[in-house]
Design goal:
This protein is an alpha/beta fold. Helices cover about 45% and strands about 10% of the residues.
């Protein structure tokens, strides 16, 4: 599985079908004007389905998306721990210390605005052998409503910030909350980015009980899984600790017990 699209965008089957339906509806409305309500209804249903596809983080209707590591990586017993919404000057250094203690590598999907604020910390993440990838510039709650110009700005600014901080341009992109619309994929192609979702997540921005988060991540855990945690916007335990800091050690123990190896997405997806 090679990352990136080499600057070329190929519409997905779902997008091609949508374009064909719009053309057919327009033709029907012109040929049989009395049937325009049916044509309009078909177009409306199509837009509802496209919206639903954008709201489902694992959907391939709008274009390719990585939800698991390639078969070759799974055969090697690899898993990917991905850490979103940072860097956070308080939490991220502690995450790095835990990973260092276990000899584990992770992929950090960073917010471009935070990268500019904490460039030295980002350089430290890279220096320790972890990967830093694109998680948009501002992580807006309305990201999935952007047009191509908005997507271009969000992704390009984050690319520039991460490249300046680490010296290497990101190869992967994760949309805020995993949400998108059909206009995102052409921008990904222009920037040679691959869209990444996850296999398992613990909802650690909302759940305050580490045991619950850990159970979601380790239930049926197997080679090839992409796991999602957060160093930024992390929920806090009753004691005030970021949940990831209490989940990560037992998660790494579970990975080790299953004889799996945590690697970066770049290692697993050359």
């Amino acid at each position: 599985m090679k990352s990136g699209q080499g600057g070329r965008w190929t519409p997905s089957v779902g997008i091609k079908a949508s374009v064909g339906l719009h053309a057919a509806a327009a033709g029907l409305a012109l040929w049989r004007p009395e049937d325009w309500p049916w044509a309009l209804g078909a177009v409306a249903v199509n837009h509802i389905l496209l919206t639903a596809a954008g709201l489902w983080p694992h959907s391939r209707v709008l274009g390719p998306i990585i939800t698991r590591l390639p078969e070759e990586a799974a055969a090697r017993g690899e898993v990917a721990i991905t850490v979103d919404d940072g860097p956070d000057p308080e939490v991220t250094p502690q995450v790095l210390a835990i990973l260092e203690a276990y000899g584990a590598k992770a992929t950090f999907f960073c917010i471009g605005r935070k990268v500019r604020e904490h460039a030295v910390l980002c350089a430290e993440i890279a220096a320790r052998g972890h990967a830093l990838e694109n998680h948009s510039y501002s992580h807006s709650h309305t990201f999935s409503l952007c047009g191509q110009r908005g997507f271009e700005r969000e992704l390009r600014l984050a690319q520039e910030a991460l490249t300046a901080a680490c010296g290497t341009p990101p190869r992967f992109f994760r949309a805020p909350a995993g949400l998108r619309n059909p206009l995102l994929d052409p921008v990904l192609a222009r920037l040679d980015l691959s869209l990444v979702s996850w296999t398992r997540r613990g909802f650690d921005t909302r759940r305050r009980r580490p045991q619950s988060v850990l159970a979601s991540l380790t239930r049926q855990l197997r080679a090839g899984d992409i796991l999602l945690l957060h160093d930024g916007n992390a929920a806090r335990t009753d004691g005030g600790c970021a949940v990831i800091l209490e989940v990560l050690p037992p998660l790494l123990d579970a990975i080790r017990e299953r004889r799996l190896e945590p690697v970066t997405l770049r290692t697993a997806c050359p």
